[in-house]
Amino acid sequence: MSRLVAGRFRFPPLEEVSFGEPAAETVAALAARRGARRVFVLASGTLARTTGEIDRLREALGGRYAGLFDAMPAHSPRGAVIEAAAAARAAGADLLVSFGGGSVTDGCKVVQICLTHDIRDAAELDDYRIDTSTDGKVRIPEFGAPTVRQIAVPTTLSGGEFNPLAGCTDERRKVKEGYRHPALVPFAIVLDPAVTRATPEWLWLSTGVRALDHAVETICSVRANPYCDGTAIHAIRLLRQALPRVKADPGDLAARLDCQIAMWHSMTSVVGGVPMGASHAIGHILGGTCDVPHGYTSCVMLPAVMAWNASANAERQALVAEAFGEPGRPAADVLHRFIAGLGLPRRLSEVGVRPELFALIAENSLHDRWLHANPRKVQGVEDVVAILRQAA
Q: Is residue 118 part of a domain?
């Protein structure tokens, strides 16, 4: 007799997704429809300084444009978030627009918390962050919904804009922390492949592997379900075709949009409440503690985690190999070869993570809630170190 699957799917308060339409004009129309008068933009510094995209957005917004913050470093450190919130507060912002990669998107989400709750010092964020104990117990603080909402224009494939969870790094502890409220998700997302042409190839492709990581870990999750399997499998099929197409021809906008649609599909399970596993958990620590770009963390950790988990969920991993068009092959090997074909790093040594850091990474990983949802039970520091050695 087959197993009866039970669960719940959470729909976040995301009102609409625009795809294939020009970003500047679309954002301006959304702002006008919402009645916004003071639109403050958080943008990637490179995008703001080396392209005309922010100038086009400023022109489209006209008198609604209230200012720009373009100094958000990787992994959204608390200090920069507080600085961005201060600038938005001084500008009288009634709407935020994030225009850039995952760090800009996440930083903007936490700025929403700062504006709503008048947070002016980084230490005050302690009261709002998710806390996970080493035994997997999770405390998610309750706080009021953001009063200044966000439109997101992503230029990478990390997918965080679809998630009501925000990541922000505490510089004191060098740990990336989570913040969650249903309304932290932007009310609108604009997927414009044209604005992604300035994204460096390594960043586009590696965050594409990040999207792949979302799809793979949710298919293999202990709480996977048939509804979410469909979107995750389709995400893998799109990404395995579209990422190599963009690598072969960076000007292929149809391939770029396919990547964006795949990223959107890859986030369905995550947003719906399907937990991920050790690849994401350890990846969060590699980012916050070792400053590894989060796309690269998926490149080096996903195949290693899949290999470590194979004894616990081989049947689910078979779905991943099938989605890649390689039924019967070990999913870890399929992923390893695909990532290599994109010219991306596959070892911790390639991203500057030394073995002497493994114990610290493992210890910090125990405080990530997704480590405790891994399909193969992680018993403690020794198991995490074993996975890290597999990825070394």
A: yes
